[in-house]
Structure formats: structure tokens, C-alpha cells
Amino acid sequence: MTAVMSARRIRPPEATGLEVGVVPDPRAGTVQVVVSGEIDLDNAAFVRQVLLTALVSHRGTLLVDLERVTFCDCAGLNTLLTARRAALRAGRGLRITTAGRRVERLLNLTGTRPLFM
What we know:
Blueprint: E1 8-10, E2 19-24, E3 30-39, H1 44-57, E4 61-72, H2 74-89, E5 94-99, H3 101-109
Helix pairs in contact: 1-2
């Protein structure tokens, strides 16, 4: 599977308010994925697709910025865990560099925050 991601924002057609940007990070060996809006059952598959494509397209660690995510349900958490598992299988990492209050609360309540550090 080959995919090319550029420094741009991507909007899923079925989910208004969700934006995902993928940008090669200036630090060697990383790629920045910035998500804003809501991650829920309706668009979690799209977010997962973007994360997995970024993983395949770039050779480095995925740095995920969730600072502007206003809502994340268990489907969104499952998406993050799936992408993390794929990164580990590929010998790379997935780190959540920053997250808003609601995402941090979800990660802390589920005990998954340490998995993304």
C-alpha cells in the first residue's frame, strides 16, 4: 500500500467540523498530524485512515496534536489505539503531543494516556 500525504488539511465529506492536517515535521524522523473538531463514531474510520496513511507514507514517528479536538468518544479512542498498534508493528511510535481537556480526560479515565507518551 502506497500513499502520499502533503502539508494540507483534509476534510471528510460526511463530517462537518472535522479537519485533519498531515505535515512532515522539521525534526528528523517525525510527521505531525493535527486534528480539530469532533472524533466520533461517524468519522473515526476517516481519522484512522489518515493516521494509517501517514504511517505508511512517512518513515518516522507520528506526532498527533489533539489540542483542538472538542469531543472524542470510544470510537475515537479505538482509532488512536489501532494506529498506535500499527505504528508499533512497523517499528515506529505514535505520540499524542498535545490534547485538549476533554481528550486528556478520556485518556486518563481509560488509563491509556501512558501509551501515547
